[in-house]
């Protein structure tokens, strides 16, 4: 095993943290390109820890006018903590890379007056259509479904003595929030997200 591999293995056991590149998506077989996922070299020649395995992810691409562009393959690329910190605000870093939670009612959480979609603030993956947002009274943006199931990852979260389902972005594996079964119809679900992890994009004309 090389020195780099030994260091990476040691760090994985010590921290179990990751930093994946954010950036963009390229529509497969289409002419519309979202911002591309950017590779970033690890500092000092040693790769950063990874939140999940690096490799490809198959997402659903959406144009800003709401058009579904179909499946798109993206690379999960590694960023160091320093690179993530330069990319995200301090609060977004704590929420998205350290599984934190913003204070209720501390960020924008009301449904926008105009149509649009919510993208991951870290990598621009389309996450929610504004038409599916509802006022949950919790102080966090709440949606009754994601824009595409493949664009989010659900994992079991047993922290703080509770059993919950955590939601992360499939494009960069950044923590977004949790999903609960007390939402409205037609799904009965409440995807309770941190507003600092979302970027609203007003729907443009096609």
From TrEMBL:
Record has Oxidoreductase as a keyword: yes
EC number in record: 1.8.4.12
Domain of life: Bacteria
A GO MF label: peptide-methionine (R)-S-oxide reductase activity
Keywords: Oxidoreductase
Catalysed reaction equations from the record: L-methionyl-[protein] + [thioredoxin]-disulfide + H2O = L-methionyl-(R)-S-oxide-[protein] + [thioredoxin]-dithiol
Statement: the UniProt record of this protein carries the keyword Oxidoreductase: yes
Domain MsrB: 81-203
Pfam families: SelR (PF01641)
Enzyme class, broadest EC rank: oxidoreductase
InterPro entries for this protein: Met_Sox_Rdtase_MsrB, Met_Sox_Rdtase_MsrB_dom, Mss4-like_sf, TAT_signal
Family according to the record: Belongs to the MsrB Met sulfoxide reductase family.
UniProt protein name: peptide-methionine (R)-S-oxide reductase
Organism: Rhodanobacter lycopersici
